[in-house]
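Note to self: the last two entries modelled the partners one at a time, which told us nothing about the interface. This time every component goes in together.
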Amino acid sequence: MSAIEQLARDARLASVSLQSVTNEQKNEALLRIKQVLAERKNDIFAANELDKQLAEEQVQAGKLSNALFKRLDICKGDKFETILSGVSDITKLDDPSKKVTMATKLDNDLSLYRVTVPVGVLLTIFEARPEVVVNISCLALKSGNAVILKGGKEATHTNAKLAAVIQDALASLPASNPIPKTAVQIVETREDISALLDLDRYIDMVVPRGSNSLVKYIQNNTRIPVLGHADGICSTFLDKEVDLNKALRIVVDAKTSYPAACNSTEQLLVHQELLQKDTFSKVAQALIDAGVTLKCDAASHAYLQHHHAGAGDKVQAAGDEDYDTEFLDHVIAVKVVADVDGAVTHINDHGSKHTDAILTENAQTADWFMTRVDAAGCYWNASTRFADGFRYGFGAEVGVSTNKTHARGPVGLDGLVIYKYRLYGNGNITSEYGPGKKEYLHQPIAPSDYQL
Amino acid sequence: MSAIEQLARDARLASVSLQSVTNEQKNEALLRIKQVLAERKNDIFAANELDKQLAEEQVQAGKLSNALFKRLDICKGDKFETILSGVSDITKLDDPSKKVTMATKLDNDLSLYRVTVPVGVLLTIFEARPEVVVNISCLALKSGNAVILKGGKEATHTNAKLAAVIQDALASLPASNPIPKTAVQIVETREDISALLDLDRYIDMVVPRGSNSLVKYIQNNTRIPVLGHADGICSTFLDKEVDLNKALRIVVDAKTSYPAACNSTEQLLVHQELLQKDTFSKVAQALIDAGVTLKCDAASHAYLQHHHAGAGDKVQAAGDEDYDTEFLDHVIAVKVVADVDGAVTHINDHGSKHTDAILTENAQTADWFMTRVDAAGCYWNASTRFADGFRYGFGAEVGVSTNKTHARGPVGLDGLVIYKYRLYGNGNITSEYGPGKKEYLHQPIAPSDYQL
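The predicted structure of the combined assembly is written out below.
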């Protein structure tokens, strides 16, 4: 067995131990991690300084962007304190495992329960920000999963130090706490990742956190289910019955409050009747004032060239590719559609099933749109930027999923558990049931009668 | 766009229409399908006769097994009536879509709902039994999904006829019912399947129904999520505190009541202390009496050779591969383990995460086993053969899933829906919330206050 296979098998064995751990034991581990991180702050900062020093040379050589460099720093301001308080915040969340989601009496002495359980072993691959080591380790432990981490190479020393400190913390737990230190492990090379992506025998789910290209690479190179999303191409549709004030507020927030986020609106769809009013004109002006460049289809381009002749290069003709692009910048694609069905068709063809909004005062039109658009989030008169685990009230965010099996949309701890069926019998055999024999009861079991 | 891509896109467009369909309209479609199937019985039987005639030549040429040939026949006995009543049974099931599984007030004018919705487009690939065309089409429609079918080539004429009849039934629905006939489509060639397995843009889930090799081929050749399982290697563990009578009943039922089923027990794990009592001896004798061959590890082999010298070739030495084999026959692998942890380790290493049972009178040991075994079903004192959608009370079975994301275990209609988040606002924008600004309420919404 290769070293990397042994590591994956250790994670699998750790995940078996984690199945029996109580919520109190998981919280005890998290608080111990917080404590040891605080105690070893100087070691961690020294590792981070080393990474920053090496990265600075890369920046000067033009091999690393300034934005990536900034994300590397965990020493500045209250960043480290924020990381620590994030750990104790996770202890306050509900345990997502051991919840009964179905209970049925099959016979008087045969009871069936569907109970949430940890998924098993997670593989997390991320870039730049070293605090992900702490955050994802704690989310994994709280949900009862073992985790294997792989960070960006610019943060190698910081990541390794953080993982070592977490392992030391787990190793120092009292003997009564069965969480092994192999519940959190780290790997460093691309070769390790290639090998791990093949080990669907030991690894249950991959959680990539990073760029589109990272996510796409992983999706195309493993049979293991991937939790996350590559593109975030969100649309906002201005219906003919839109309220102008809501539109002005929402479109500007959805595009400009954080353009680099996956939940920012990348496409503005406009009902054709709005070209006969001043609604579209005012919304376009608000975007231009906010520094946004509009990439327009023929109809909207002609309209804006006529009504906003002074907008200069803030109004441009769109190419076909602009309707399949995640700009992540002060740029928005604009398209005029005949009606709500035109908007639905465009979104289902060009969107990424992430989050799409309709702005209208007509409840029936809103319901039609929200029912027929195939996306994890369908919003009525609200900004697409609400697609976020914290804003949804999950208290934590593992990622945003565009999957259509299991977790979808912003994913909290619930996305890291699945269920198993537990059947409690008394010697029951299937051949005693059937036509002319015993009949199944199929009665729901009330929570007060659970025998778990 | 190729013909097959057009077909997949038609399915995708049909699935959008299906999102808006009511439960009444879905049931109307199912009953119409039942009616037209009955009306066209002669056509269907003629197609089936043609397939059987061609297949018979294959059987005589030794190119097709008799078992496969028998599955082909939908004319004999009350088979066709059973198919028809299966259709009306599905109308009686609850609509699995449009269920609210979470509802939270984010602000006084901002409400978030998590609602179940159809997955979208299903691709079902199956072998031999033509009735799957009817069954899976009806399950897909009832859950609001479009479906593309591909059956075995021995049943080409029957499958094509059944699909054509279903499409005719859908085409003859009143104009008030928006289900298009492209909601059910069929393809015939292997090349079509290769092309479809690449179209993750249009197809959301593959549901294979057939042999291990079929399922494995599909799992290895698509990025689309696959609902199902390849192997069904189920184990039954006889703990030292087992009740002999329950063991005798359960082990024989689990192994012999239908050996070709995926939920039959393939491995018998025996606590070592049972070799000092006569428990194992009696269980082994019951299996031998039922015609089962025992493939034994060294400890159990020595024991049985000593105590059951007359068993002849019903007791054999096992090879390593026998502990990773789905026999689907009157054969069982036997292994002696030191304790419950030995059983758990063996199952987690060699099982297929399908269904595993412990037989014991000790509740604590049972809980330990059921918690630590990583399988869709963990049973206490019951036969693994209970792993079945009808026995679980789902009223229908799409398949049995060993996936650890989304549906797991026997899958009914619930496995064909996923949720979407619906957010109802009043012009809300994210930049108004945060420290020093508006605070999120994150209050659960009571069902009586739902605004859906």
